[in-house]
Amino acid sequence: MSLSEIIATDQLQSRPRTRTGNPDIGAMPRPVPQEGVTLREALRARCEEALLRSSAQSAGISIFDTDDLDQLTWVATAGVLAPYEGRRFPRSDSPCGLCFSYRSTQLFQRPHQYFRWMAENRVVIEEALVAPLIGQFGAFYGTIWVMSHDDPGIHFDLDDADTLADLSRGLASIIRLNNNAPDQDKRVR
User: Fold this and answer.
1) What residues make up the domain containing 145?
2) How many distinct structural domains can be found in the chain?
3) pLDDT tens per residue across all 189 residues of the chain
4) In a domain, 157, yes or no
5) Spatial CA neighbour of 128 closest among 140, 118, 120
6) How far is CA 181 from the centre of its chain?
7) Does residue 149 lie in a domain region?
8) CATH classification of the domain holding 99
9) Is there a contact between 148 and 55 (Cβ–Cβ < 8 Å)?
10) pTM summary value
């Protein structure tokens, strides 16, 4: 399988908008992380909101490791892939790494057929929608993503891309203010 066979970003434009999930969630004001909440808890809340606002079966936030440029950590996850929270994966061999390269939201179909670590870890993904976390002055901190696994009827659309864009707002700042530290269980400042 080639990379061009799994990148399906151009299909987002032709898919009808479906506005899945709970529409009232998107209209609610998003709480600012409170003192005493860990960074992981603050980020996990965004993942859970992504699940509520889309038809995804998993959601997560990946942060790029500033000490090892080819590593990323799934710092927060929800849904089917929740057990993978805290795991590190190679950035160069991942949808998140490609999102970094393109610096824009990307849609992937069956990426586990291309990325070796997914096959090795038995991570089966029908579709993955990955949005960048870009901070001040264009600094790239990581990604927020949603995935479907065992339901080939789930197809992400521009509404889902808009949801990820909305959820990504402020995440880079939260991560930067907390020093992008490997200890995601420290308290949010």
Assistant:
1) 3-12+32-177
2) 1
3) 899 999 999 999 999 987 755 455 444 444 444 566 788 888 999 999 999 999 999 999 999 887 777 889 999 999 999 999 999 988 888 999 999 899 999 999 999 999 998 988 888 999 999 999 988 888 888 999 999 999 989 999 999 999 999 999 888 878 877 754 445 555 444
4) yes
5) 118
6) 18
7) yes
8) 3.30.450.40
9) yes
10) 0.86
